[in-house]
Amino acid sequence: MKKTVIGIFAHPDDAEILCTGTLSLFERAEWSVHIATLATGDKGTAVYNRNEISRIRKQEATESAGLINASYHCLDFEDAYIFYDRESINKTCALIRRIKPSVVFTSPQSDYMVDHEMTSLIVQTACFCAGMKNLEVDEKPFEPVPYLYYCDPLEGKDKFGNNVEPSIYVNISSVIETKTKMLECHRSQRDWLKAHHKVDEYILSMQGYAKRRGKESNTEYAEGFIQHLGHGYPQNNVLEELLPGFVVTRQSLTKQ
Ligand SMILES: [Zn+2]
């Protein structure tokens, strides 16, 4: 198996909120790690114009990725205008074909923001089509279809307010500091929220949430995932093999 993993999300900082603990563990296991966003984060500001904030946020994302020796890629779509269409599928599939990941993380299919949901669908199709010869992409197809995992929706609830139960937890207690430092790189967002809430809501809510998932899985801090198990995708939970000792399944918790 090629030791390459990628997290593909809508906006800069989504990965840090949802799965950079797990990506840090991959990096420690000597995997090559990539983080990509479809959009530039151009609406995440009350101060700058679109070009300025896009440049700032790409810099923040690059700096954050650098903390785990990861490469950051931006597909340069715009916030609120991520569409499930030819262009987004082709660009995402081209990226996947260049990197040839064995494992892919993305946003959940039901979340508070449509950008996240569209990204999730786009990534699903881009992975499925990674090996399809006639997709309109110059990069060479490759097989097999990568393992695909969905991260939690924000606050662990879908858009109807239902709690989402992860089927897989990854114990990130040993890398919570790295995850925190990565999120701290997104200064434009942190400062914005700080001014709004008067407390360091950005960092505190991420840590509080990881603590909640930790409690559910009898660990200190955790990230939750659901594996894509549709036809054509690998069916075994490879995270258990790749991150031995760090993975707790819901199945094992209900047996206790
Ligand atoms: Zn987002």
Tell me roughly what share of residues is in helical segments: 40-55%
Bound molecules: zinc ion
CATH H-tier superfamily: LmbE-like
Class by SSE composition: alpha/beta
Protein described:
The chain has 256 residues and is an alpha/beta fold. It has one domain: Rossmann fold (3-Layer(aba) Sandwich). Helices cover 42% and strands 17% of the residues. It has helices at residues 14-18, 20-28, 50-66, 86-99, 114-128, 176-184, 187-197, 201-216, 238-242, 250-255; strands at residues 4-9, 32-39, 71-77, 103-106, 147-151, 168-171, 222-227, 247-249. An 8-stranded mixed beta sheet has the order 3-2-1-4-5-7-6-8, sandwiched between helices. The protein is globular and about 50 Å long. The model has no long low-confidence stretch (mean pLDDT 96). The site of zinc ion (ZN) has 5 residues, from loops. Zinc ion (ZN) is lined by residues 10-11, 14, 113, 116.
